[in-house]
Every structure is written in C-alpha cells, then in structure tokens.
Amino acid sequence: MSKAAKLSGFPEWLPQDRIIEERVLDLLKHTFELNGFAAVNVRAVEPLSILAKDGEIDKEIFTLGRLHSEGKERNPLGLHFDLTVPTARYVLENAGHLNFPFKRYSIQPVWRGERPQDGRFREFIQADIDVIGDEVLADHFEVEIPLVMVQAFDALRELGVPEAGIVANNRKLLEGFARGLGLDDVTSVLRAIDKLDKIGPEKVEELLIETAGADQTQAKQCLRLAEIESGTSAFAEDVIALGVEHPLLNEGIATLVALLDSANRLHPGAVKAQLKIARGLDYYTGTVYETFLKGHESLGSVASGGRYDALAKTDKKVYPGVGMSLGVSRLMSRLVGANRALTATRGVPTAVLVAVTAEDQRPEADQIATALRRRGIPVDVSPSADKFGKQIRFAERRGIPFVWFPSAETGSEVKDIRTGEQVSADPDLWAPPEEDIWPRVLRVDAE
Amino acid sequence: MSKAAKLSGFPEWLPQDRIIEERVLDLLKHTFELNGFAAVNVRAVEPLSILAKDGEIDKEIFTLGRLHSEGKERNPLGLHFDLTVPTARYVLENAGHLNFPFKRYSIQPVWRGERPQDGRFREFIQADIDVIGDEVLADHFEVEIPLVMVQAFDALRELGVPEAGIVANNRKLLEGFARGLGLDDVTSVLRAIDKLDKIGPEKVEELLIETAGADQTQAKQCLRLAEIESGTSAFAEDVIALGVEHPLLNEGIATLVALLDSANRLHPGAVKAQLKIARGLDYYTGTVYETFLKGHESLGSVASGGRYDALAKTDKKVYPGVGMSLGVSRLMSRLVGANRALTATRGVPTAVLVAVTAEDQRPEADQIATALRRRGIPVDVSPSADKFGKQIRFAERRGIPFVWFPSAETGSEVKDIRTGEQVSADPDLWAPPEEDIWPRVLRVDAE
C-alpha cells in the first residue's frame, strides 16, 4: 500500500461523521422495528439475468469479472443497483419460510455506474421498507408505509435533520382519470405528466397531444389534475369537480384520502397529495411517494417508492408489494457536506483516557480501564507514558472529556478537562454524566 | 422478477437468523467501542492498482465492469477482498484529519472469487480492529488487540457462541531464532514451519533442509521451537533452553511474554503461545494471531491477524499497524447452520399484535399501536379484519407473544398467547415484561 486514490462517487466519512451516519442508521432501524419490520440483509451480487430485466436501468449496472478468469462466465454477475430487485428474488427463493404479509427492512449499499453529481453517488446506502403480500396486499399498507417514513423523519429531526415532507399520488387515480377522459395510452400520459416540473405545462400539453393521443381539451384536463395539491383529503373534491368518472379513479381517490386522513391524525402536514407525482418507472400500480427536505428541494427526493402489484412472480404466484427507499448517503451529503448541519461531540467513542505516567505502570492503568469498561464506559489507555500535560493534550485533541490519573499512593483522581474540575474516583463506582458516556450528535447552529 | 437463483458462496439468512447476526454485530461493535475504537466504513471498491499489489491474493479479486461500457476502463476497479488494504488506503488519504495512534474498527462485507467451501464464502462479513501508528507503534498494542478480541468472544459466549481460544506467536521470535541458528532465509523457514499441521514434522524437516538451507541439527532445532506451546509466559524458558541467541529473539519473547501475562490477568486460558503459528502472508513483522472455536477447530481460524510495520506508506512516511479480523460469516455458518447452536425467540421484532375485528376499526387499532410504539414497544396491527381465533393464530405463527384486543365499550384487553392470561390494559400504561419487548437469542440446547 503506497498510493492514495480519491474515487469520485464513492463517499467515505471521517470517524466523527461516521458517528452521525451510525446514529441516523440506528434511528431508522429502531423506527422500522417498532413498526414490526424484520431486518433482512441481501447479498450484494445478483445474476445479470435478474438485474437486467428492467430495460431502463441496465446501463447503470456494475458487472463482475475475475482478474484471472479465462473466457466468459457461465452465470455473469453484477452488483445490485437497488434493494427492491434482490428483495423480490429473496422472497421467491425463501417464500416457503416467510410469513405473509412479509414486512422487512434492509439498510445496505447499492451501486450504480452512473456519473456522480450532487447527491448522486456510485456507491450509496439505501434504507428500504417494504410489505410484500402473497397474491393479495390490502390497500392500508399503502397508508402504513409513508407513515412509517414520517416517524423515521420525525426521529431524524430530533437529531437535527431538516424537516421532511412526503408528497403522494396514486397511479390508479392517474390511470382512471386518463381512461375516464378516453385516453388509453396511460403510460404516455404518465410520462408526460412526470415531466411537468422539468419542462412546464405548455410542453406537457404538447407531449400529451403528440404522444398520448390527447386533444387539447383532454390535455388541459390532465394539466388541471396535475396542478392539484393539498395537505388534506380535500383534494378529492377538486378531482371530482373536474367531472371525469372511472372506477379506477374512485379507487385511487379512496386510497389517497385514507392516506391523507391517517397522516393528518399522526402528524398534520407531513404528507401532501400532489397529483403531478407520477414516478417514471413503469411498475408502480398504486400509491407513489417522494420526499423532500425543506430547504434542500434541489437535492431531489430523499425517500421514494410506491406500490407494485407484481413485485415478484412465478408461473403460479404473484407477490404484490409496497415500499419506500430512503437515500441515506444523499441525506448524509447534506448533513456533513459543505453546509454542514450536524456535528459529533467527538470522533472517538472514548469518554475517559487513563493516563500512564511510566511504562511499568501500564498494567495498573489497564486494570482501571477494564473496571470502567465492565460498567459500560468507553475507555482508552494512554498510548505512551508521559507527563500529565501531554496526556491532557492527547485527550483534548480527540475530544475525550475525562482524564483519569491513577495513583497507588494517594488514590485515583479524574479530571473533566473541559472545566478543570478534578475529583477522587474509584473505578468500581465513578461514572461520567450520562450525556458524556457516548459521543452525541449536535446541530452545528446549536453548538 | 420471475426467477429464483441460489448462488453458492453468497450466504443470506432468514429473518430469525439475521436477528442472531445483528446481535453478534452489536456485541462486537459495543466491545470495540468500549475499548476506544472508532467506526470507519470504507467503500466496497478500490482501484485494481491498490488491490493487486500482493501477488498471492490477486487471483481472488472480483473486478468491475459496466454493462454497456465500450473498451477498457482508464482506472479499473475491483471489490475489496479484505478490510486491511482499504483501511491502509483510507489512512493515507485522510492522514491529515486523523489522530495517531488511530484505533478503528470496520464491520463490512468483503468479496473473494474463490471456490466456496465449508466456512469459506465469496461474500462474507469481516469485523476488523486495527491500531495504526504514525511512524511508530508501541509493542503494547500487540498485547491490546487480542485482549479486545478476548472481550469480544467473552461477550459472544454469553450469547451462546462456543468458547474461543486465541493462539499467538511472534515473527521476531521466529526470525531471531532462525538468524540465531545461522539461517538467513527467514521467509523459507517461516513457510516451512507454517506447514507443520498440514504435512507433519518429517516433511517440514525436509523442507527446511531443501528450501531454507538448514542442516539436520538446525532443522531439528526449528522443529523443537515449533512444538513449544503454553498458556503462560513459561514458554519463554523452553525457548531459552534451546540455547539459541539473537537480539530479535529476545524482543519477540518479551512481547509474547507481556501478551501472555496480560491475558492471564484478564482472562486466564484465553490466549496461548503456540510457536508453530507463522501465518503464510509475508507482511507480518511482530505478533501473529489465530483463533479457534472449541469443538469447531476444523472450521479454521475465526479471527486472525498480526502486526505489520509497513501497513501503509508513502515516499516520506510509514504507518505501522496491528490488527485482527474476525470472520463473522464463518462464525455464523456454525451458529445457524446444520448443527444450529443458537435460535431467536421470534423472527419479527413485534412484541404485540393489535387485533382488528372490522376494517372500519383500523384507525382505533392504529392509534393503540402508535401509543405503544411511542413508549418503545414494537407493535404490528393485524393486516386483515378477522375473528379473534385467526388473529391469535396469526401471532402464533410469527412468535408474537401478545395480542391486543381493542374495545371501545369494555376497554382494551391484552392476551399473553403462550399462557392464555388475558388482562385489561391501557396503551399509555401497559408494557410487556422487559424480556419480551425484543426478540432474544437462545442456545438451542437451552430452549
């Protein structure tokens, strides 16, 4: 090892920032488990035949080879580009051992061979929750999934993460509206509406006419629908007022109304209906979601997903699913990046440094450290025997709040190096204040 | 997604076994942090120029390509095959931001393109601890590293993992002994001794004579050294009794004596000196370690490592390191494999299922669930409205211990479905017994 190499798109954090990331991951994990989601860890690797099914995404796949392999692999492999495809494969492979509806979360890296940009990486951590049904999956899971994400963002907000807002729509609502209007090329309607923010209403109207077979009246109706947004189920009246009728439209409205009503009971304002949200990918069949951080909308959605009626299928069976995927690395890029929002009180777990004044005193220092650790206090022993002043500077540089001075003659003393206060201490009794035991995460503006 | 594909060498666990793996990882993490090691997460990917430096290992590297790339990559990448190489690169890249000696741990997957066997995988999780110095690294870290691993295995043993024993040797001791005997081709001496268990003493003697330039007397002396093992520092007398002298030999003995003495203070019997341990790879320069699970010696070492004086280096600087790597997946293969040692009390986090007797009662059930979750209790709401008996069977199949029956008229009741006991309960007050809140890990034989 003799050369350093920065690789664009492969973020790595310094230890003090990894503390923040771990805290984020712990809060997510805890929230998901409180809601009954079981942890699943999938392998990083899938056969290309599994990964490359959805035409739109296969450009971004990292393929695997072996340095000294000769010729082609019989079963070529690639790195997964999301956690949905491997989860679908995992469900098929283990269906006989799982209980349905199967609620699982996964927090793992994924890889995409695309060009890195702000908030877009080539290796990044996703935190996914999904509910997968056996043949059927009740609509109320489309309500549950974003409400779990609301809880997750609430927990992150206590940490100092900016406020998040989830926007939702429903594919059945869009499809029913299109069909009710007499537009049967639903995919083209969705693709056109999906571009509203990028190209504006005039161009979307043109697209609807050119690609979806709409006349001007139909196109205008689509645009009116796409402009509807509301923080309550009142959006339904605006849709109905457009005068379009279709059974699917009613189903979509009902599910979205249930979502808004439940969300407003749990956390008023956290979820909004926004009928221009279409999500480009083809496979969604019910509610779709995106999530934006207030003040960081330019980052794009930090948690997206939806319902897909054929998440996994065999010749005999179909497994519908609904889920959302939170982009942990994208979030982290705003928490610890250029305009850092969070900081850790220190970059080491250590709360106490046991000083070593002479190398032959190390066994006594080790004993004190062992006694403190047994009581759950993270401790380090000074790496080199030195004067007290140097030991304190060693602790200061690392943000370790306490230095322990052993003394066989006069008894140990421990110093809070922030205040200078020094007290007698017994390693079987003394403990730092609760808030100093582990590093804490603080808002930069609250420091 | 329409096809399942088992991939040999890429282990995945069912949810109830992932609970065991997570418990193992939590205990490792906690032990490492109590000892002052900071978490570092490295990217999965390195330039091949970084990975392929050590000739011995490059056959096993998975290389990366892109599905639609044309021609050769300018900077070809591969997946890391261990956590040491990326950590060395991380240290060089971030040296200006790190405090030395830098104590870090990493718990991450690594990939090797080798043939899968019992306990050998192509994707597996390693848990590494290392201390890395700036130019210098005191010998006492060679004592600290295995003692941290002893603590980790002690913590795992409380979970039900079989007892572990660490065996240690010292490269300086071996090198000093060889040089003291007049054998200067130290690498060949080490390689021969390393084969003792595989090929037996006669063949090692032949190898020493053929490859290391030893005469029969020198070869016999090497074999006598290799046979020495002891649970205390008394091994030193046996070495000295062989009558070989060299300054390096003395240094090696002193470090190994310090390790045995410290280990016996903390945990008598956990570390043994075994002078045949050489570790094949070239770069170790001080203590070397291997770890075996009692009763599972055939699995090979589950935690290995050593000291390397040039872990990382630039033209101007050298960073010595000492570390050990614990094979989490290898360990897991014995904990949950054919002769399963551990089991989880359930495969879901859920402690309480809130029953739903009619679909229009779901909002009330959701409210109860929210109240319980706010108090840290993992709760699921029944996915479909059904009779009480079916709700209980739903919970039973998942191992959920409690079912909550809401009733607006008579007040809620909660049933422990293991005992049948049913009591009135208020979602703002009732809690399950502490031991039922989260799934526990049990020994199979203690069930």
TrEMBL record, chains A, B:
<feature type="binding site">
    <location>
        <position position="279"/>
    </location>
    <ligand>
        <name>L-histidine</name>
    </ligand>
</feature>
<comment type="subunit">
    <text>Homodimer.</text>
</comment>
<feature type="binding site">
    <location>
        <position position="112"/>
    </location>
    <ligand>
        <name>L-histidine</name>
    </ligand>
</feature>
<dbReference type="GO" id="GO:0006427">
    <property type="term" value="P:histidyl-tRNA aminoacylation"/>
</dbReference>
<dbReference type="InterPro" id="IPR041715">
    <property type="entry name" value="HisRS-like_core"/>
</dbReference>
<keyword id="KW-0648">Protein biosynthesis</keyword>
<keyword id="KW-0963">Cytoplasm</keyword>
<dbReference type="InterPro" id="IPR004516">
    <property type="entry name" value="HisRS/HisZ"/>
</dbReference>
<dbReference type="InterPro" id="IPR015807">
    <property type="entry name" value="His-tRNA-ligase"/>
</dbReference>
<protein>
    <recommendedName>
        <fullName>Histidine--tRNA ligase</fullName>
        <ecNumber>6.1.1.21</ecNumber>
    </recommendedName>
</protein>
<feature type="binding site">
    <location>
        <position position="130"/>
    </location>
    <ligand>
        <name>L-histidine</name>
    </ligand>
</feature>
<dbReference type="Pfam" id="PF03129">
    <property type="entry name" value="HGTP_anticodon"/>
</dbReference>
<dbReference type="InterPro" id="IPR006195">
    <property type="entry name" value="aa-tRNA-synth_II"/>
</dbReference>
<dbReference type="GO" id="GO:0005524">
    <property type="term" value="F:ATP binding"/>
</dbReference>
<feature type="binding site">
    <location>
        <begin position="82"/>
        <end position="84"/>
    </location>
    <ligand>
        <name>L-histidine</name>
    </ligand>
</feature>
<dbReference type="InterPro" id="IPR036621">
    <property type="entry name" value="Anticodon-bd_dom_sf"/>
</dbReference>
<keyword id="KW-0547">Nucleotide-binding</keyword>
<dbReference type="InterPro" id="IPR004154">
    <property type="entry name" value="Anticodon-bd"/>
</dbReference>
<comment type="similarity">
    <text>Belongs to the class-II aminoacyl-tRNA synthetase family.</text>
</comment>
<keyword id="KW-0436">Ligase</keyword>
<dbReference type="GO" id="GO:0004821">
    <property type="term" value="F:histidine-tRNA ligase activity"/>
</dbReference>
<feature type="binding site">
    <location>
        <position position="126"/>
    </location>
    <ligand>
        <name>L-histidine</name>
    </ligand>
</feature>
<feature type="binding site">
    <location>
        <begin position="283"/>
        <end position="284"/>
    </location>
    <ligand>
        <name>L-histidine</name>
    </ligand>
</feature>
<keyword id="KW-0030">Aminoacyl-tRNA synthetase</keyword>
<dbReference type="InterPro" id="IPR045864">
    <property type="entry name" value="aa-tRNA-synth_II/BPL/LPL"/>
</dbReference>
<keyword id="KW-0067">ATP-binding</keyword>
<feature type="domain" description="Aminoacyl-transfer RNA synthetases class-II family profile">
    <location>
        <begin position="20"/>
        <end position="349"/>
    </location>
</feature>
<dbReference type="Pfam" id="PF13393">
    <property type="entry name" value="tRNA-synt_His"/>
</dbReference>
<dbReference type="GO" id="GO:0005737">
    <property type="term" value="C:cytoplasm"/>
</dbReference>
